[in-house]
Amino acid sequence: MWKLVRYAAASNIARSRRFSAAIPGPCIVHKRGADILHDPWFNKDTGFPLTERDRLGLRGLLPPRVISFEQQYDRFMNSFRSLENNTQGQPDKVVSLAKWRILNRLHDRNETLYYRVLIDNIKEFAPIIYTPTVGLVCQNYSGLFRRPRGMYFSAKDKGEMMSMIYNWPAHEVDMIVLTDGSRILGLGDLGVQGIGIPIGKLDVYVAAAGINPQRILPVMLDVGTNNQKLLEDCLYLGLRQPRLEGEEYLSIIDEFMEAVHARWPKAIVQFEDFQMKWAFETLERYQKRFCMFNDDIQGTAGVALAGLLGTVRAQGQSLSDFGNQRIVVVGAGSAGLGVLKMAIQAVARISGCSEIAAKSQFYLIDKDGLVTTERNNLDPAAAPFAKNPRDMEGLTEGCSIIEVVKKVKPHVLLGLSGVGGIFNEEVLKAMRESVSTKPAIFAMSNPTMNAECTAIDAFKHAGENIVFASGSPFENVDLGNGKVGHVNQANNMYLFPGIGLGTLLSGSHLITDGMLQAAAECLASYMADEDILSGILYPSVDSIRDVTAEVGAAVLRAAVEEELAEGHGEVGPRELSNMCKEETVEYVRSNMWYPVYSPLVHEK
Ligand SMILES: NC(=O)C1=CN([C@@H]2O[C@H](COP(=O)(O)OP(=O)(O)OC[C@H]3O[C@@H](n4cnc5c(N)ncnc54)[C@H](O)[C@@H]3O)[C@@H](O)[C@H]2O)C=CC1
Ligand SMILES: CC(=O)C(=O)O
Ligand SMILES: [Mg+2]
């Protein structure tokens, strides 16, 4: 019981902390002098108090005046606002990269201040450190490169990874985001430049889940690239060879996973932006052996399911009506198929029907049109969702999006194709004939340029009564007469931080379908009916820590129910299972790292 009191107290501190926070505990540092100023984890810039300057050999290495954390914060935000003013009228790309640079410079210099401005301004800064700007950063990575971040394992490191993993300076790692750069957002194969994605995702982990930034590790597995332009670019920083395939490829991933597991057996590995064949294959290969999940397949599925269930509520129906919704999914890749699988399971669960029966309401379209069992060389991953000729109601193999939408008149049109603009005017106008008076359009592909349609076009062509969601942020749409078309951001960022934190605190060695389902259900029930009825399906990004506390608790409780929770730190499995729902949420919240300057104590 004393432990319950302890974490409840910790959470009260968390709530009352801002600039006038309770005095944080000391932090041991093994360096002195300029080495501290050059270490972004310990550096406080002009914020070192005079006593600390004396203790740490910093006297004379800084201008004499001590600037408080609040002043440093304001100074940074003022610089950021000046940059906004000074870049007005310049192309979006230039402005976005300038904003990313100023944040990145702070990240490189002073992590405490960086994460504080990120957490406090997450809605404004998420589009810079995450989608859409992170896509631009990856595309321009070789030119933007100043210093490395994370670890790089290449095909040339075969046989060395077990020792290389010990080159990482931190003793503990909780969360790893791993990519091979083969499908970066909707931008395709960006090779080693894809490292920007694990970096961005882990920044979201710190901001949304309070994962300690000293315990995160972005990883690039460079197995070559098939992007000819990059191979010919003399500044390209990755291996200049075609991607490894087959067993050669898998042996690299295997070696990496074994190395990670050997050094940090409890670290969670999030697979991110792998091309579809490897996304599915690696999930299948590792999910029962390692604590891992695939965010594009599983995180996206949960967020989409929450949005689909929200749509049913927004239409004024009860959840049992989910089974009657006609849903067209455009994109049969890792994301689209993950969504279909989870949504069909949910229909079967909610309606009490078989999964085979549940499938009849779903239509899958890929680059070759409607996917049916009549297709030659039907992709085995898409086969379970292919339409059977007897259920096709006049549709044929390969029908186009417009043909399917006109015939099916779906309640929901959901895009995960990576192709910008394919929900064109004709398709959107056809959605006016939907059987629902409040149809939903989910243009979930990233970054913004790859969204299946813009928010403005969706409301303009499909009608003002639609529910709209996109993967990257768009502004709400002014519909005139004081009316606003609400834009939801249907992005896996609402789930992956909670999946990671909940799993970490549970101490589970696996991430199960049950834990992922609990995460999705938690997000689905997060919004109040009042908001849902006005088309708001997801909470504001501003409340991402609250969302993550709830999602994390749901994941943790699912792990407890499945008897997988082994506990974390001093809190063991029995204490976890004794917590009620509210206590679990508080426990998760109280374990979120929050950036404050700690007094530094030197130890040799
Ligand atoms: N909002 C979110 O949280 C997430 C969004 N995404 C986005 O989803 C997109 C797809 O990701 P993955 O499924 O991993 O990619 P993928 O490459 O595995 O699959 C793309 C699919 O789209 C289909 N496609 C391509 N052109 C098409 C066309 N003209 N018409 C219809 N279908 C077409 C392909 O046949 C393929 O089935 C990316 O843009 C990614 O950024 C992915 C994960 C999460
Ligand atoms: C959001 C995300 O994971 C993607 O677009 O791939
Ligand atoms: Mg992704």
Fraction of helical residues: 40-55%
Largest sheet strand order: 9-8-7-10-11-12-15
Care to count the β-strands?
16
Overall pLDDT score: 95
Hetero groups bound? 1,4-dihydronicotinamide adenine dinucleotide, pyruvic acid, magnesium ion
Q: What is the strand content? A: 5-15%
Query: Biggest sheet: strands, sense, closure?
Result: 7 strands, mixed
Radius of gyration: 24 Å
Indicate the low-confidence ranges by residue numbers. Answer: 1-18
Number of helices: 26
The outline comes out as globular
Keywords:
binds pyruvic acid; 5-stranded parallel β-sheet; binds 1,4-dihydronicotinamide adenine dinucleotide; 16 strands; 26 helices; alpha/beta; 7-stranded mixed β-sheet; disordered N terminus; 10% strand; 604 residues; binds magnesium ion
Word description of this protein:
With 604 residues, this protein is of the alpha/beta class. Helix content is 44%, strand content 10%. It has 26 helices and 16 strands. The strands form four sheets. A seven-stranded mixed beta sheet has the order 9-8-7-10-11-12-15, sandwiched between helices. It has a five-stranded parallel beta sheet with strand order 2-4-3-5-6, with helices on both faces. Helix 19 links the parallel strand 10 and strand 11. It is globular and about 80 Å long. The chain starts with a helix and ends with a strand. The site of 1,4-dihydronicotinamide adenine dinucleotide has 30 residues, from helix 15, helix 16 and strand 8. It catalyses: (S)-malate + NAD(+) = pyruvate + CO2 + NADH.
Topology:
Elements: H1 2-16, E1 27-29, H2 34-37, H3 50-55, H4 69-86, H5 92-109, H6 111-120, H7 122-129, H8 133-139, H9 141-144, E2 151-154, H10 161-164, E3 175-179, H11 196-209, E4 216-222, H12 228-232, H13 246-263, E5 268-271, H14 276-286, E6 292-294, H15 295-314, E7 327-330, H16 334-351, H17 355-358, E8 362-366, E9 369-370, H18 401-408, E10 412-415, H19 425-430, E11 440-443, H20 455-462, E12 467-470, E13 477-480, E14 483-485, E15 487-489, H21 496-506, H22 513-524, H23 529-533, H24 544-561, H25 573-578, H26 581-590, E16 600-602
Parallel strand pairs: 1-16, 2-4, 3-4, 3-5, 5-6, 7-8, 7-10, 10-11, 11-12, 12-15
Antiparallel strand pairs: 8-9, 13-14
The protein binds 1,4-dihydronicotinamide adenine dinucleotide, pyruvic acid and magnesium ion.
